[in-house]
Amino acid sequence: MNLEAAIPLSLWETTSPADTAARLFPLSTPFGKATVGLAGDALVWFGFGPRSAAEFRRDWPGRVVAEGDGPRGFPEQLRALLLGESALPLKPVGTPFQLLTWQILLAIPFGATVGYGELAEQMGSARYTRAAARAIARNPVSWVIPCHRVIPETAGKGGYRWGRNRKNRLLHWEQETDNVAPTVSNLKIS
User: Fold this and answer.
1) What is the mean pLDDT of residues 117-130?
2) Which of 36, 145, 165, 168 has the smallest number of Cβ neighbours within 10 A?
3) Taking residues 163-176, what's their average pLDDT?
4) Domain count of the chain?
């Protein structure tokens, strides 16, 4: 059985990026260089590594992308967002099913992990496991929308779009930080 066929077609229609231009800028993090994308005042992209900017352009075809420095104070604003103390809007581009998946990821507590099957159950059916895994792999706002906290029910930590080593470092850091940051379930994808 095709698991994607069990999910209503309306949940696979892709939403379009906002008509606003996007700003793309580099950011140094404890986990390596990142690329951040803002559309207006909304966070639409957060990716790690040298290929992140190219992936951003692939996901935002035909849009004006300005590159340069980030807005003044953005590192502090990002830190506040990760601690649940900021109202920085999140506006990732995706299908309704992807947006639902990413919204559920926001409820995973800092330092915790969940299995793909458990996540699919939270979405309404264990049959959504593969589709949820694909949505997780397409998360355009990594670290903030914590896709790194989803692991296989079997052995290991699983893959990560930005590298398994980085996923392991993120998880280790969160677990060693002793839950300094609260769950950011108060964040909403607009």
Assistant:
1) 87
2) 165
3) 88
4) 2
